[in-house]
Design goal:
heterodimer, A: about 270 residues, Rossmann fold, 2 domains, four-stranded antiparallel beta sheet, 12 strands, B: about 220 residues, flat, binds adenosine-5'-triphosphate, binds magnesium ion
Chain lengths: ~270, ~220
Amino acid sequence: MSAVGVAAVPSGEAQESAAEAIHVENLHKKFGQLHVLKGVSLSARDGEVIAIIGGSGSGKSTLLRCINCLENPTSGIIRVNGEEIKLKADSHGHTVPADRRQIERIRSKLGMVFQNFNLWSHMTLIENVIEVPVHVLGVKRDEAVAQAEKLLVRVGLAEKRDVYPAYLSGGQQQRAAIARALAINPRVMLFDEPTSALDPELVGEVLKVIGDLAGEGRTMVLVTHEMKFAREVATHVVYLYNGLVEEEGPPEQIFDAPKSERLKQFIRNIG
Amino acid sequence: MHSLEIAVGATIVGLLIGTWGAYGKLYGGPVVRDLFAVYTTVVRAVPELVLILLLYYAGTDLINQVLAAMGYQRVDISGLVAGIAVLGFVQGAYSTEVIRGAILAIPQGQIEAARAFGMSPGLLLRRITLPAMLPFAIPGLANLWLIATKDTALLAVVGFFELTLATRQAAGVTKAYLVFFLAAGVLYLCVTLVSNFLLGRAEKWARRGMPSIKEAR
Ligand SMILES: Nc1ncnc2c1ncn2[C@@H]1O[C@H](COP(=O)(O)OP(=O)(O)OP(=O)(O)O)[C@@H](O)[C@H]1O
Ligand SMILES: [Mg+2]
């Protein structure tokens, strides 16, 4: 992606013309009294790979889960594909989606990959991959199967198409989960620490698949603890500390010339 | 010989109530939750025989009073329908708890994934929650089914001509008590054996995505 020489260029300038796939503005999230996100803003333009890094409990997962309303934000603006998620206050004063259909439509454009894979255990891999295209998006079954078979080839699981997830290694399950997310032809892929539940020797095969996607110019938001990987694939890195964006910028700036004291320490500890 | 029909009908009614009940208890608002809590507590607290008498007489009477108030003729509610309704109502309370437990046993991530891909609540229930909870629910539901086949005998108290009552009358007329009751016992046993076979198959199918636990001994 961006060459080392452009490290000083402000983020996203090269892609300023590209449409904004995800826009988050002044997002707050409270769990009861616990104020987890304290006004976070984030933007992902088409083709960008945003890596979110930060210490445990800093709110990375919460931020990602707010984007597709798996958690309801307490306040703030979220736009996906230019469409703002409509929120309202319920009878208890909690913010909830105002329009269930809208949320479902938006979610079906975001391919989420979870830390724990979360494949549906009563379905074979091919069934997992065609499930959403067939039942949510209304794709014809044989088309969906043909498409799913291609995706399974891509993630190297063609011969496992009729196997149930429980019979696969973690790395294989995560690759299948990536195929499931790709099957909806998502506008943006969301990854929440896709490799942190894996044995070290299985991490590489999953990172390779994600790296290939980044290389193809897929828009992605990626929460990760793999700093080396973030540096390789990300176009923009966001360092979250205690519910706020402490520092952000291109990977070269974040990893080689961090400004914030906390980020410096974080990189020293983790690297 | 309507014993089996009643047992099947009551189990189906029970499963429908149980699914709604479990959903209501898990995801419903406070009012819905309380209503189902009262339902499951009361039904499971009162002896079945008492419930059957109560629901049968009070229930038919209530329906007829409502009909009379609206200017309609009294109806004779068929024993079959009444039996299914009454036993189904009882079964529903137990099914609610079995299914609620089974839904809680589903790894929550699978439900979350379904939500994250834009499944509507109805689709999620049909495609994910029900099939995923089945392996955890079948043993408990199998118990309920077997109990239902035998609970039909209780309907004799409201004059329903089911297997046990038929046996008693046949035995009373012929005085061959042992023969008739043995025959009835064998019939109940056959139902149980066939059920066990079919339920075993069903459980195996429902667990198709789960490795055998024998190796994990
Ligand atoms: N459902 C919840 N209810 C209450 N508190 C929660 C909930 N989910 C998360 N939290 C809290 O919010 C804070 C941020 O959690 P989050 O999972 O976003 O952190 P994270 O940055 O993803 O951490 P990690 O790197 O460990 O995954 C934590 O203090 C956590 O305890
Ligand atoms: Mg997390």
